[in-house]
């Protein structure tokens, strides 16, 4: 039985593989239903989950308990509940029960509602996903069902463009050799097509519905896991066991492309599918201010405890006095000791002052963050109209940190440069076509080629002469060259109505194919073993004999093709195309490979000696032209993509095509922007780092260093080794040397970081994604700095995740970078605005908000402490319960909120951009830190003291008709004084007035009036005298002119100092900003890095290609199946097999002994291959 | 500036007389009563003579003032039952627990319960004008001293058949320190029981340990005569309220009142001070602005 023999088909054996305990029986639902597994103590659940997913957290019943449980993970909430529980003891309940319960429940409700809305959204999306249609084999026929009906073991039919509903084992497809094309954009963001292939046996046997219904194979494989790219298992069917690997699996979330029909067996459904297993929790990044705030809350809490303790001790002494002397109170002190009283009063004070803990701060904070993110999303200046991509703040809790960035790490390819490929230049038969040859300024005339369908002619040709030459069609070499361009690639074509859409694995391929098309050689389509092109209007089909995909070893691609039917033509018609990818390591880097003479069959080892017609192809790397012309201009501009494709046949000298920087102008502009913003940032002594995978040339910019990945590795490696050592404390405890070396390693790292940060720019070339992340880590660790990483590709994900803020460039290389980023921008140049404008404003806003928030809390509520000194330290609350309950969320929240939302523009956005010096405040934490907090605290203390003592002195000696120093009037007066002082202070502090800010302040006052009225009406008192204790108190107090005068006095006294300060600052303070700017003007401006392009901008196509880090799929197209042995050829070309081997040898030697020929770029007999490596 | 001047001028018009009758000094007529207890019978009485230098033209308000008396003590403030005071019959017989230990006495509910009511000020003050050795009593009006809200909303007598307060308060007992039950506070029915204004005024607790409470009104009789002529007066005190144990003081204050209250130097002085500071600051800032402001405005960052 197959069950007893778990992995007969697994060659790797048991020691490496976990036991294949996941068994799937095709078309056997009952089996999968009955199998159960233990998951807790003695409970068990079904082993195989259904395909319905539930990402929603709550349902009707669980919402309340679960949501509350989640909310009480927040310490502040727990604390408040603790205090509320404390209040139930009558001896210490100093505040009425609703004072804390009301705001707390308000906050809980608000947050709960938000969670609810989110969860409803998740429910909706779950429902829509679960009810997507799909075809399931039921009985012997396929029926339309919904995704949620799918069970493990079902057979599912998928059509073109449908989404794979679960992890499937591909059984068969309508394509020849059971290929199935999938796009994995939703999984890893890569938009190139990938191939999956079914087992031959299933493909052949399962062609009808009946056979599928009868299919009873058993798959044994790993338990569900999150490894997206690996799969091992076996299929046991009809007594034979077949090994399965990742290429047989269609993952949930993929989209089937270019395949009419395919069938799959469900292996993992629902939450067992790899993509679902992979969706982990996102780690929330915390901003510096966030952390500071958390610490401040603790500081406030400690202050509270200390104050309570001090007051409680005092109350102990007073208790003795009360007990002994105050006869009217003595009865209250029966049977207690002063210590007991002090203990009770300690808790009483803790409850009384707990309102000072900023309960509503976090939620206000979140709201401000949210709105600020919306401002970023709505910013039209950061909207990229060409692609309809606005900036997007994906993480809403980091906006203030944008104003504090100290180091920027940027990916180069695709981020700084745009990675746009277009055909620029080629050299065929000794003639150089393209830009730089003097022809490029001519407008191509009569470019409408015969046979071109409308809409296809859009890729501009760089050179009219080339077009003319191609149309004349009298140069066989040129013809071969163009044919080669149209044949040698792995582009897939999709016919959308009147337009051919090319799906290329890499942008350069697409550019070449497009170039061929615009020159009259239109690639029309491919089947598994043929390629159809239209050569100058004549459609020809080439039989594809072999395809050698690009890989990083060969650095080229070859195709063996045979022109249909025509044997004579076959020999000539098999251009072996090779493209070289040569790593460009710098000016002195090896550039080129000696041209191998002779008709060396360059099609490599994949021919397997099957006697295919030798195709001579030779790759040659060439940087010549570009290197010679470019470098003196500006190296940085040269970092664009150079490409050349060469092909060589019959030892003639050959077709050379040199693709130059596509959008060189664009690149330089972007680089310009980059340097500008970097200069802006570095203008005050901060060194931005540019991390880039390949940025080999030294920019002629002073104070910049370049570090290669290897060097980086050495530095980082020491660190890592030491990290490992740290894990073994005894090692370095007992061994001093380890410790020394650890110190040394840290020193090396530190020295490196110091060196790097003293430069204006650091360029790291040829670094791996991990190194990028480590680099960020290094700076974060040693500089304690706020870092930002920006990138667009999957290789930047690590870096983006590591940095304090990750920015993804959207819409270029798939979604992976964006999906991990905190902010998504459409263009690199928007970064400047994001930081200098939005970042700065957000930082200003948040800081001002925090100051105002703490101020209003202290100013309003500390008066209770002072009152304790006059009430015998008995923790009698000064304010009425409702005032306290509403103070934080209704009376003062809105103006503070409006400060956080709208306060900004001390200078306009243009000035912010123009004077990046203004950004320094954020980098140096100037606007909110412990010192500012201390000042705010003192200010609040001052305000509360003034409000309290002015009222006290005014009331002490006062006689009047109504207000004769009674508690209620006193309370109302102090409350009103404090509230108004706070509001006026906020009003004074607001520099930027909007209608909304005005409304917010008005709303506060109105709410104060409204709620004072409501909670103090006579009717409310009649209903619940214990809850509404102050009937008509405000009315009685505030109709007394004397009280109004007192309020006015304390308001004036409170406002006077800050008003003076504001005036003085307005008069004198601006000078500092002014001086800064003058200083900057006086300082000789550093010459901006000049980036010029020597190639005018042409039309270009942007490829949406995500660099896949895997090998291309060309091999998959043809592997095994396409590369079929052709009998005729075999016979005919047997004599050539020797040559094939020859060529292999030659090629090998050529590869191993990379010719370091930095001399002349273009030599006779050389074909040029330059392509930017990844 | 103008405000503060008005306040000063106004304050100057006010007349105020303060008489401390605690009797801590041995020479004081009330010294004999210093160690009186809450319910000493007969009450210790003493008389203090004083002279008004100026006539009090308008209506005169009579206050009693206590100092070092913590009416804002948390547990003291709480020690009352608002429902009971609001006329709730069930609370009358079953007062709130907040009133402990003044909730019940000898198994009978106390009405009004609580420490505040229990410690109600119970000195009786009477004012006589001494004109050629004849003591003319001055009419002291005891109604109209409480807030309207208190009198009509917060405090209500229990309801029941008839208006006989004695019957309505059946089943309750008087507060421990009181000499007589609550329904015997006054002879007039609309000033008796819980709505007795002296009681209401006392129950409106003071914010600070030194406080005054309105005691009586003296209305101006006619336009030809000031309310209180200058001259000799005597204050007769039924001294019941002990304050000596906690170093308290007892005062009687006579004052006239305008729209902004009685005579109070603090506010006036404060306003003058603040006004001067404002003026001074204004001058200084103007100077600063004049000297430094111009230089910057032209070259400032334009928005």
From TrEMBL, chain B:
Keywords of this entry: Cell membrane, Cytoplasmic vesicle, Disulfide bond, Glycoprotein, Golgi apparatus, Lipid transport, Membrane, Transmembrane, Transmembrane helix, Transport
Compositional bias annotation for Polar residues: 84-94
Membrane topology: Multi-pass membrane protein
Location of this chain's protein in the cell: Apical cell membrane; Cytoplasmic vesicle, Secretory vesicle membrane; Golgi apparatus; Membrane
Main location: membrane
A biological process from GO: phospholipid translocation
Keyword Membrane included in the entry's annotation: yes
GO CC list: apical plasma membrane; endoplasmic reticulum; Golgi apparatus; transport vesicle membrane
Regions crossing the membrane: 266-288
UniProt key word Membrane: yes
Positions of the UniProt region annotated as Disordered: 80-101
Membership in a protein family: Belongs to the CDC50/LEM3 family.
Record's protein name: Cell cycle control protein
Organism: Zonotrichia albicollis (White-throated sparrow)
